[in-house]
Amino acid sequence: MSTESASTTIDPDAVMWSASESDRQGRPLLVLMHGYGSHEGDLFGLAPSLPLEPVIASLRAPHAAPWPLDGWSWFTAGTDDGPRRDHVNDSADAVIAWLDSLTVTPTSVGLLGFSQGGAMVAQLMRRDPKRFAYGLVMSGFITPGEEPGDAELAESKPPIFWGRGTGDEVIAESAIVRTTDWLPTHSTLSGRIYEGLGHGINQQGVADARAFIERNL
Q1: Span 61-101, pLDDT tens digits
Q2: Where is the Phospholipase/carboxylesterase/thioesterase domain positioned along the sequence (predicted)?
């Protein structure tokens, strides 16, 4: 194991939960992962607009974002070619290790992430295809390279939602093309392009996310 991997962990004390430990028994889990330079409280604000059945856990990314950002990141921003694969996988494996450490085992696990967190959704499903029931990639992308789970995903085609705005100038065009090519062959894809939306999630996106989750519980 690399030094980077050994030091990359999810802080359990920073996780925001929608239910107490005693209320998590026998329920599905929805894991939220924020974007670059943000924090665990960001997407947790969506909780009232999402289905009530899943327990929601909003994670803090394991790395401090570089100055002047006052937040956290899943991996360094990288280039148009994408982030370094080992950095993305260190964080993905940290999330899997955190899931393994839970004292209450959920009945299923779904993923929802924004931007970098959306890239993490796909990478987690590529790292451990059998673990996750569905994923929502909000203004996110597929990272470059091949993963051992890709072949299995091409067979099982788990449900994935990909939503993005026509006005998003943050995600590189090369990443959009890569994602457009990859998702239809490795998932049962539901997608929506939001006219005029920049790098964000609008009310229609939240409604679409809720409907997608409800269909896949």
Answers
A1: 999 988 788 899 999 876 556 788 888 999 999 999 999 99
A2: 22-215
Q: Are strands 72-73 and 159-165 parallel, antiparallel or unpaired?
A: unpaired
pLDDT tens for 181-209 read 999 999 999 999 999 999 999 999 999 99
Per-position b or e across 87-117, b if 16+ CB within 10 A of its CB: bbbbbbbbbbebbeeeeeebeebbbbbbbbb
147 contacts 124 by C-beta, under 8 angstroms: no
- Residues 55-77 as b/e (b if ≥16 CB within 10 A, e otherwise) read bbbbbbbbbebeeeeebbbbbee
CATH of the domain at 22: 3.40.50.1820
Question: What is the rounded end-to-end Cα distance, in angstroms, of the chain?
Answer: 35
